[in-house]
């Protein structure tokens, strides 16, 4: 995954979006990434009125292990608490500590695997200067070997798996009753979770992967006066802008693409089922097409907001929303061609109805007039 965006909509709600593209060793593209996930089971979420969403960047296997093992640690802590043997989970700060501990542990585990396979000892052995094998201590004397092992443990060569692991980045979006909505950021260059200062935060696998998205959302926020930035943004506007920013990143930057995955948290709701919303792939695909229609001036802003609201918050059938999109487009003909990948200035001229859908809905296309 090349991009993940977190947004604090107001004091009780927020959202996170990411793409599904990944490049294996920076060469081969894949589109099965699943990098945004809840860290809490429904039972734990309801017990403490907590929500926690993790978006991990970098190697898919690393992000998967971090998410899975963090969930296991949280569940273990929860059941210890239920048995009267441990402390309760009271805040997202507790979750962030567990998540950070897991990330650091996954780094160490992978480095130790590499050192054991090459030299027969681990990083702690290297630092202390000797290792134990079958009850006997052996000093690590060869300076060249020590130097090479230290490089493997600290600064792996570019392009190797360990290098990709160490470039892990992450966002943690959460809600608790005491602090409201909270957004944390993590980067390997600053290996700790820290609270983000602004309403949004973006992470990319490379510094320029996030530029297009950063500018897109910044342009939206820069239009808002201070009282709105303090009291909270309109949730439909924010979701629209997050999809728009992700789409712009997919157009202009490498390693961003596929369907977008969105999670929305509403801390005002009473149960996990109501607090945690994750639209379907189909809904997100249609939402992205709506954004494309607006970009090419084929859908007006009010129509876009209306349809995004129907898809994301009202759970309207995506097929019905797609029909509305074409019905309300200034030129369904041009919109159809653009969504099929044609360049906007190279769409063939035609005044004839050209698909079964348009025929069934009595939509006649006139490219010259740009209407229906």
For this entry, give a set of tags.
372 residues; alpha+beta; Glutamine Phosphoribosylpyrophosphate, subunit 1, domain 1; 2 domains; 5-stranded antiparallel sheet; 15 helices; globular; disordered C terminus
Tell me the series of helices and strands, N- to C-terminal.
EEEEEHEHHHEEHHEEEEHHHEHEHHHHH
CATH class of the largest domain: Alpha Beta
Radius of gyration: 24 Å
| CATH superfamily descriptor of the largest domain | Aminohydrolase, N-terminal nucleophile (Ntn) domain
In the CATH hierarchy, the architecture of the largest domain is 4-Layer Sandwich
**Overall tally of domains:** 2
Describe the structure.
- The chain has 372 residues and is an alpha+beta fold.
- It folds into 2 domains: 235 residues, 4-Layer Sandwich (Glutamine Phosphoribosylpyrophosphate, subunit 1, domain 1), CATH 3.60.20; 77 residues, no CATH class.
- The chain is 46% helix and 20% strand.
- The strands form 4 sheets. A 5-stranded antiparallel sheet has the order 12-1-2-13-14.
- Strand 1 and strand 2 form a beta hairpin.
- Helix 3 packs antiparallel against helix 5, helix 9 packs across helix 11 and helix 11 runs antiparallel to helix 12.
- The chain is globular.
- It starts with a strand and ends in a 12-residue tail after the last helix.
- 38% of the residues are buried.
- The C terminus is likely disordered.
């Amino acid at each position: 995954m090349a991009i993940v965006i977190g947004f604090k909509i107001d004091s009780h709600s927020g959202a996170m979006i990411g793409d599904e593209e990944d490049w294996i060793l920076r060469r081969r593209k894949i589109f099965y990434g699943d990098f945004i996930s809840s860290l809490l089971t429904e039972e734990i979420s309801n017990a403490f009125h907590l929500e926690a969403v993790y978006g991990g960047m970098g190697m898919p296997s690393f992000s998967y292990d971090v998410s899975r093992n963090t969930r296991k640690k949280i569940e273990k802590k929860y059941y210890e608490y239920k048995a009267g043997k441990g402390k309760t989970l009271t805040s997202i700060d507790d979750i962030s500590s567990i998540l950070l501990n897991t990330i650091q542990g996954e780094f160490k585990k992978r480095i130790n695997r590499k050192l054991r396979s090459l030299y027969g000892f681990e990083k702690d052995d290297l630092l202390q200067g000797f290792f134990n094998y079958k009850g006997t201590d052996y000093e690590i004397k060869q300076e060249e070997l020590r130097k090479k092992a230290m490089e493997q443990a600290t600064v792996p060569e570019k392009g190797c798996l360990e290098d990709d692991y160490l470039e892990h980045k992450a966002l943690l979006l959460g809600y608790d009753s005491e602090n409201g909505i909270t957004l944390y950021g993590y980067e390997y260059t600053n290996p700790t979770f820290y609270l983000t200062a602004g309403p949004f935060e973006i992470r990319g696998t490379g510094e320029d992967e996030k530029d297009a998205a950063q500018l897109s959302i910044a342009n939206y926020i820069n239009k808002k006066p201070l009282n709105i930035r303090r009291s909270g943004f309109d949730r439909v506007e924010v979701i629209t802008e997050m999809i728009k920013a992700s789409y712009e990143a997919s157009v202009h930057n490498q390693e961003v693409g596929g369907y977008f995955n969105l999670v929305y948290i509403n801390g005002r709701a009473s149960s996990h089922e109501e607090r945690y919303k994750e639209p379907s792939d189909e809904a997100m695909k249609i939402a992205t097409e709506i954004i494309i229609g607006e970009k090419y001036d084929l859908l007006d802003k009010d129509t876009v907001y209306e349809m995004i609201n129907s898809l994301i918050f009202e759970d309207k059938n995506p097929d019905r929303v797609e029909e509305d999109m074409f019905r309300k487009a200034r030129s369904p003909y041009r919109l159809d061609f653009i969504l099929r990948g044609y360049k906007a200035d190279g769409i063939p001229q035609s005044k004839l109805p050209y698909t079964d859908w348009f025929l069934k809905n009595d939509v006649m296309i006139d490219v010259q007039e740009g209407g229906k």
